[in-house]
Amino acid sequence: MNLDFRKYMIGAFIILSGLVLLGRLFFLQIIDDTYKASGDSNSQRWVRQYPARGQIFDRNGLPIVTNQAAYDLMIIPKDIQPFDTAELANILGISKDVIKTTLRRLTPKQKKSLLSYKPAIFLKQLSAETYAVLQEHLYKYKGFSVQARTLRNYVRPIAPHLLGYVAEVDSTEIKDPYYKIGDYIGKSGIEQFYEKALRGKMGLNIYQVDVRGQIKGSFLNGDLDTMAVVGSNLTLSIDAELQTYAEHLMGKMRGAAVAIEPATGEILMMVSVPNYDPALLVGRVRSDYLKLSHNLGKPLFDRSVMSAYPPGSTFKVAQGLAGLQHGTLTPHSTCGCTGGYTVGRFHMGCHAHASPLNLPQAIGNSCNSYFATAFRRILDNKPLSTRENYLQWREYILSLGFGEKLGIDLPQELSGKIPSAEDYDRKFFPTPESWRSLTLVSLAIGQGEIGNTVVQMANFAALIANGGYFYTPHLIKKIAGRDTVPPQYAEKRFTKVDTSHFEAVQEGMYYAVTGAGGTAKWVAIPEIEMCGKTGTAQNPHGINHSTFMAYAPRNYPKIAVAVYVENSGSGASWAAPIASLLIEKYLKGETARPWMENRLLSFNLYDNHAEAN
Prior knowledge:
It contains 20 helices and 20 strands. It has a domain at about 240-290 and about 305-605: DD-peptidase/beta-lactamase superfamily (Beta-lactamase). It has helices at about 1-30, 35-45, 85-90, 95-105, 130-135, 160-165, 190-195, 195-200, 240-250, 290-295, 305, 315-325, 360-365, 370-380, 385-400, 420-425, 455-465, 500-515, 575-590, 595-600; strands at about 45-50, 55, 65-75, 120-125, 145-155, 165-170, 185, 205-210, 215-220, 235, 255-260, 265-275, 340-345, 345-350, 470, 475-480, 490-495, 530-535, 545-550, 560-565. The N and C termini lie far apart (about 115 Å). A hairpin with a 5-residue loop joins strand 2 (about 55) and strand 3. The relative contact order is 0.10. Helix 12 (about 315-325) packs across helix 15 (about 385-400). The strands form six sheets. Strands 2, 3, 4, 5, 10 and 16 form a six-stranded mixed beta sheet that branches. A five-stranded antiparallel beta sheet has the order 12-11-20-19-18.
């Protein structure tokens, strides 16, 4: 009985062991591809073919960004033979120490290691000129070869902030399976936002190699190879000539300017100064990035969509619309002003002007007293509480394009600031009953806790020009191979202010340029009816910021502009003439006021030439 039992046990053990081995073999050969992949890596070499990146053009078809040839110098460590280090260093424009250090880093300690048979990048992004010289001598350097790439070429050195730049993928971006270490990706601006369109599609060549990594021919006669697909060209909405002119006018300033076509929301020009030559961030020259990032002027910072400036008196137009919608103001409502707005010991000053004024006149003359009164009427309007009225006022302002991201096609856009009721609960008012309109009265003239981006103010000017609606501002006009731009840029966005209320503020902005006491009369454009609003944004850190928004022509507007010049004084002094010249340039194709241009070009913030008025 014992013998039979042992016989069955041994048989069962043999059968079980066989099943385990068969199961493991099935798993390794059919399910798990780890060893297959390892085998493939020993017999195949996959070489990626990099596509040329899509080119970028302006609205008139002028090229802004194209491509230039570049080359990566590759090595196969096991094939390296002694060579003239000094000669190679001279050709490549690097030191002998760099060559020696790189070779030590790339050469495996064990010569029979698989890494010795695989190509590695020795030096990235050789210029076409360096490659031409190297090619004549390459036969001397066994184990070295060249892999073709492309780099960005800036035909016009303009608009670095909106274009963005291209650089190597980082540890976060490498998680996308499309990219491998050493690949390049759009890092900011249009290059980042439209990365998938611009990058094209990677190609692949698969070669059969022997155990030493030497290529023996195409794998499966190239049946599995794929061609690289060139990236899609982009046509932007910007006018390259207008962009160039704006950067010229503001070259020695600090601030930003944005122009929009009201009928479409297309951005015609977007400037942030100080700026930089975009070619500085191309290829191995990108070492200049550190210099730029440490520059005190912060040239890498995009002031057009990232700075939350106080709007100053330009905000009075929004205040007027809120009052009209709230029913506490009419176009004919008047208010007197005797040097400012005074309540008890509180005083808000105002410049000398005629009095009393109605709404259009108050906008044209930029009367602080008028809008302080109008704002407090909104907040104190019964039967609602001050806090409830503030919430309603805030909804009107948000709908005008402030306090939230507009959705422009730039990844760096910020939202600006329109404080929530909860912000003020924490800061000033511990209970709903403790809210007081006088505490918040600085908001009436665009000061206090509010801030807007320059693109928001330009969009506000476009919204007024359209009489109550806007299109999301955008830089894209066409993506090659597609019939339309993204649908969100073709949708009208209406505000919570009735369209019937816009005529009064349009009249006020026209009055500012043409009326008696108008704050922008001196920048009126011959033969063009322009509507505008000046602003002097108080700056707690120094001289006030100069700001101005405008659109033209008055009927059937074609351009809306907003300009901010930091630490320069009143809105009429610097921002207004810049906007006026930009509008003239765009509508007429040229400017006829050289004296105004020369005055702007004489401005140098860094030499303290700004007017503090």
